[in-house]
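thread: overnight batch results

M.L. [08:02]
morning all. the overnight job finished for the chain we discussed friday. pasting input first so we're all looking at the same thing
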Amino acid sequence: MPKTKTSRYDVAEHLRTPEEMAAYLEACLEEANGDAAFIAKGLGDIARAKGMSQVARDAGLSRESLYKALSGERSPGFDTILKVIGALGLKLHAEPAQANT
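M.L. [08:03]
and the structure it wrote out:
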């Protein structure tokens, strides 16, 4: 029986449209449970899909700084998050949390 070859799944390869990127960010925000590094990692996936060099230029950051900020190993500053979201062509929105009754 031949061996099955597997490859590492990379979500960035599947984020092709702005709508897919926005939906992925929404899912990350819902699943994060307050973990800013998790959200940063999700933004990093989207940035890789768009092209890190271009996102870094559009955000006014160096490519290295962008990789570090979006690695998921630390929580970047909110100003960095806002710059990256803008560079990705996305926007944040808020809605009321549902009350637990």
